[in-house]
TrEMBL record, chains A, B:
Residues 9-77 form the HTH merR-type domain. This is MerR family transcriptional regulator. It comes from Halobacillus seohaensis. Keywords: DNA-binding, Repressor, Transcription, Transcription regulation. InterPro entries: DNA-bd_dom_put_sf, MerR-type_HTH_dom, MerR_fam.
Length: 101, 101
DNA sequence: CGTGTAAGGAATTCTGACACG
DNA sequence: CGTGTAAGGAATTCTGACACG
């Protein structure tokens, strides 16, 4: 659902420049599965602008004392609600088409 | 007039991955003033998605045999026409407001 | 748990130059 | 003119580990 925003092309040093978040933290959040960079053929991490935004969100939550474990649970919840919304939409569409038949 | 597209965050190696254009060529087109990357504090070149698109345009023109000098002239022409269009627009606006006074 | 840091190696990038055509 | 390549150095990135709290 996008183009530039989700293209993974930014190296970790520049992500750090952009966000002020230490490379150590950025790598750690990946280890905790909060963020999922691509890799170049030689193993260098590549991030998208979306990842950069996500990282600032994570950093904000961490500053509020939220643990990485909770942040990850939050992600799942958001995904679940998103799926629920999509299911509901599908249901409505199905009902709609059933009526038209 | 943009955000992600013009943000200079992509290193030369990734630009090469993205376009297939050799780093030598990319640097050379900068020397000929066809492209203008930013630099990190330590001198590493940083390109935007716009730059990447511009580079593929340049590469296409080069394949057709157009010399860098001509490509540069083309840029100036495009800029001139753009300026002319903007001047005309300004002229129309001015005329419009004069009439309303 | 979350993050800093020193360690060692591998890959990246940079510049100036020589080559060829 | 446009581009490849080897050269040497500096900066980047990676991983695994130790430290502290």
């Amino acid at each position: 659902m996008s183009s530039y925003k989700d293209k993974k092309v930014i190296t970790i040093g520049i992500v750090h420049e952009l966000t002020g978040i230490s490379e150590r933290k950025i790598r750690y959040y990946e280890q905790r599965e909060l963020i999922f960079p691509d890799r170049t053929k030689n193993g260098t991490r590549k991030y998208s602008f979306s990842d950069v935004e996500r990282l600032t969100e994570i950093a904000d939550m961490r500053e509020e004392g939220v643990q990485t474990y909770e942040i990850k649970k939050d992600m799942k919840n958001k995904k679940k609600y998103k799926d629920v919304r999509e299911d509901m939409l599908r249901g409505q569409l199905n009902a709609h088409f059933r009526m038209r038949k």
